[in-house]
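ok so I'm stuck.
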Amino acid sequence: MTSQVSSPAGKSDEASEAVVGEQRAPHIDRTGATEKEIRRLDRVIIRFAGDSGDGMQLTGDRFTSETASFGNDLSTLPNFPAEIRAPAGTLPGVSSFQLHFADHDILTPGDAPNVLVAMNPAALKANIADVPRGADIIVNTDEFTKRPMAKVGYVESPLEDGSLEAYNVHPVPLTTLTIEALKEFGLSRKEAERSKNMFALGLLSWMYNRPTEGTETFLRSKFARKPEIAEANVAAFRAGWNFGETTEDFAVSYEVAPASQAFPTGTYRNISGNLALSYGLIAAGRLADLPVYLGSYPITPASDILHELSKHKNFGVRTFQAEDEIAGIGAALGAAFGGSLGVTTTSGPGVALKSETIGLAVSLELPLLIIDIQRGGPSTGLPTKTEQADLLQAMYGRNGEAPVPIVAPRTPADCFDAALDAARIALTYRTPVFLLSDGYLANGSEPWRIPEIDSLPDLRTQFATGPNHELADGTEVFWPYKRDPETLARPWAVPGTPGLEHRIGGIEKQDGTGNISYDPANHDFMVRTRQAKVDGIQVPDVEVDDPAGATTLVLGWGSTYGPITAAVRRLRAAGETIAQAHLRHLNPFPRNLGEVLRRYDKVVVPEMNLGQLALLLRAEYLVDARSYNQVNGMPFKAEQLATALKEAIDA
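replied:
not stuck anymore, here's the structure
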């Protein structure tokens, strides 16, 4: 979905509450039967939850797409079951999708839902602890029978035992109403039941005045080969909308105005981190005038990049789904040797398997992008959950001295720019580059301003075309390890170019000639030169947001940007002074980072690991970087971080 925004950047208020604001006059529904009030909110957090077969991700995606087309700012948090297919109706099988949308600039999917849609008892039990008192809970009463409740430990129905008195509970027989609405289609009960998520989507679309045309078009396109199923889903969607208009249980609908002052002028679309990363890789290939070659093995949560890039052969993209992780990166490195922009995608377990080939890429000094979409670990761990625990693996996880630059995006949309930045470094300095995203960014989404082509960097690079060195006797030869004096990059010679034949392999190279060398002094020189090349990479200085001369700095990296910024806004709104900085480049660090850190009495580093960046900062700059850590597979909550940072300020 794309939408036009023509207002200048405006307010941002992550700390504001989703309270009801101005009330508008009642309106008459389509049938003219019932008057309904419309109340305006500044922001809303909705969570759809159900069994992994209930279509909660699709429901959330559609609500998000319509919200994006309406012009709200938004942030999403899909939460998948860790098991491939947990037993239906059980707690491990609950799938949820949280969407935070607002009329102003927001940064996170929200701490707690204002509305929970629970499709079964498991969904209610798994999510009720996150729901604040006074929130709305819409429950599918058809599923609250003895057996489904017993699966999750309910002895009595929570809808009847008074345990939900603190909430506004809306009992809706979603399954029954959906089946009734689809009688004319002649579907079996099981087939009709599958559309109950569309009934729920229609109801929520009515409650929050979301557009409907896009969803109906989507359903007809998605089920184009089964038009009767398409029309049944459209009918269920409309039935949910009409139910909201006609039932007395929903006397009020809500309106969240477009975020018309939150964005610079431009054309926007909703985008997930993995999609933005894919588009960034495609753009990098076009800007470098190079074919893109992806060698990859499917692994959650990185597989979507392989799926997306496989659709874009028209842009010179070639994808290879390898038999294992080692073959995937081997093919990508071979493509880099052949003159392509080589890319491999994986997660932490795959990085472990790729480590020897990454070391080879360091030795060969060829451009290669290693995209690590971090997930819970170690080992296979929690494949659908998020974590930032691969930083030290990216930094040091190879044999010998094998330095690799590291880049980390901070938001889903920023994955596009981070991909271009990683490609710039790889191509300019002839080195493999790590890009560390994570499951939170990969699956989350937000509005993205589609950039103007003229604003994108020129990534074109020159291949070696002839001799580059003159011997003492005047003979002109090609030295594959003769370096650019500014970048220390070696020439990139495409195989088959006459006169540019040279050796490759994992054994140490002689400086300049690239011949095999066992000389200790040469090895020492080459190791130090490769390190100097990485140390000399030009990266922007870290910028500090410190409007009030604070004594405490909160420093983050990667996906902690949203929660940290939201927490800082809350503290400043409460009168506290705190500075904030965020790192994109983790190797090498920005040149001014040491001076920035020494400027503050206290430095707090929130990470979704056990303190990996803090460890690096302590070692590099000898500062007392204090860790605040979480490894529960979920992103930080803004309120949680605000409390921790307030304690640090007061300590």
